[in-house]
Amino acid sequence: MMKLLDIVKEAVKRGFTAAGYDEKYAMAGVSNRPDLCQYQSNGAMAAVKEYHKAPLVIAEEVAAKIAEDPGSTKIFGKVEAVKPGFLNFTLKDEYLAEYADEMAMKPDLGFEKSTNPRNIVLDYGGPNVAKPLHIGHLRSAIIGESIKRIERFAGHKVTGDVHLGDWGLQMGLIITEIRHRHPELPYFDESFTGEFPKEAPFTISELEEIYPCASGKSKEDPEYKAEALKATHDLQAGNRGYMALWNHIMNVSVTDLKRNYDNLNVFFDLWKKESDAQPYIPDMVEKMKKDGHAYLSEGALVVDIAEPNDKKEYPPCIILKSDGSSLYETTDLATIVERMKLFNPTDIIYVVDKRQELHFIQLFRTARKTGIVNEDTNLVFLGFGTMNGKDGKPFKTREGGVMRLETLIKDITEEVSKKMSDRDISEEQKKEIAKQVGLAALKYGDLSNQAAKDYVFDLDRFSSFEGNTGPYIQYTVVRIRSILDKYSAELGVNRAEAVKNLESASMLAPANDSERTLLLTVARFGDMLANAAAEYAPHKICAYIYELANNFSSFYHDNHILTESDENRKKSWLKLSALTEKVLVTCLDLLGIEAPERM
User: Fold this and answer.
1) Residue 126's closest CA among 5, 272, 283, 249?
2) Domain span at residue 480?
C-alpha cells in the first residue's frame, strides 16, 4: 500500500497543477508543529520567484483547488493557507482509521517493497581469527545485522559477509610463537611428508593467549618480528606445514566466533576470509600493470588515487610491497574482484570503524580507476564511532584492558537480572528473559545513536525499564500482549485466535487525542522505514518506536480498553493495540532484538 506521506504529496501535487503551478513546488512533509497540523507544505514560498505572486496568494489558490478535488477531500479534514504562505493539512479521522485498518490486514504491515531491488553485498563483522571478540567488534556486528534486516525488509537482496582477517601478520605471529613453544611439531619439519595431525595442537583458550604474547614480543624484539614477517610471507607462499597450522587456527577460531555471534543474534550468509581473495591477486595486479595504472615507486607497486578537485593530498595506494608481499589494500581489492565475479552486486557496503576512512577512500578510488567495479557500482563506507566509557574515552575493563564481548553481555545480563529479582517467575524463565532484555539493552543503547557518532556506554541507563531504552520498548510489547491475553481469556481462545477474530472488526475514527496520535504514529511506519532503508539508519527506527511506545502508553492511560461498554469501540481499540504490538515487534526484529512474552 502507498506510504501515507506519498498519498499526501500526491494530493498536494494535484492541487498545485490544478492551480496552474509547476508540480516541482508540490513539496510536503510531516509538520514540526503538531499542535497546528499534521502535514505541511512550503511550496508556495518556493514558487514566488517564478510566478511573481505573494506566497499567501499562491497557497490560497492551491488550497481552494485541493478543497475541490474529490480524492483530496476524502483524505483531508482540514486544509489551510496561513501566513506567510504555508499550507497546513490535517487528515480526516475516518481516513486515518481506514489506513490503519488496511495496514493491519496486509502482509508486512502493507509496506511497499522496492520496485527496483538492489543486489547488496554487506561487509560487517570483520574480526581477526585467533582473537576473542571484544567490544570493538560490537558496533560493526549489530549495526551491520540491523542494516541487513532493514534492506531485506525493503525488498532488496542482501548477502552478509563476516570477512574474516586470516591472512595478515597475526598469522605469522601465531605460527612463530607456536614454533618457539613446540619446535618438535611436524608443521616445522621441512622434510615431513606424511599427514599432519587432524586435531589442533591448541585449544581456543590457548590460541587466544598465544596471539597477545606473540604481539608483545614482536614489539620488543626486532628479530622475533622479522621471523613473524617471514612466517607470514611463507604462509602466503603456500608453505605446507604453515597451511596445515592455518587450517587448525581457522577451525578452532571460526567455531568459537560462530558461537559468540549466535549469542548476539547476529548471522552471516558468508564466512569468507581474506585468504579467499588470494587467487585473484596475480591477475588483478597484471591487469593494473598492463593498463598502466600501477607503477613502481621505491620498489613498491602503487596506484595514484589523487583527483583534480582534492582539497588535501592523498597518498598512492600500495598494491605490493617491495618484497612482493600483499597488504590489506591488496586483499581488499581482490575481495572486490571476487565479489563482482560471484555476486555482481549493485552495492557493496562496508560497516567499519570511521577511523579507517582513508583506507576506504584509497580502496574505492583504486577500484574505480582500475575498472574492478562497474561504473554504476555503489561503494559505501558506513563509518561508525567509538563506544566510550563515562570518562569519554574508549570503553575499557576496570583493569584498563579491552573488554571481551562475552564479558559485556554477561555484565548487562546480570544487571537486568538484579532488576528482575522481585519477579514471580521461575529461575529458568528469569534467566532466558534476562538474556533477551540484556541484549535489547545493549543493542538499543548502541543503535539508538547515529552510527557515525561516538556514544557513552551507560550500563545502568541502558538496562533501565523506563526512558528511551530497549527494555522499555520490550515492556510496552509485554503490556499490549497482556491486554490481548485478557481479551483472549474472555473469549476462551488463545491470543493468536483472538487477534484473528479482531480482523472482522472495523477500526473506528479516533474518540480522543491520544487515540488519534497513536493512529497517526502507527500509520507513519511505512514512511519511517523507507527513510531508514534509504539512509542505512537503524537509529531512525529506534526514535520511531520510542515515540510509538510513549504514544501507546498515553492511549492506554486515557482509555479503559477491556472495560469499554461499547463493543465496537472496544474491538477497535483492541485491534489498534494489536496493530501497535505488531509494528513494535517488527521494528525490534529489524534491530535484531527479540520481544519476550513476560518481563
Assistant:
1) 272
2) 470-590
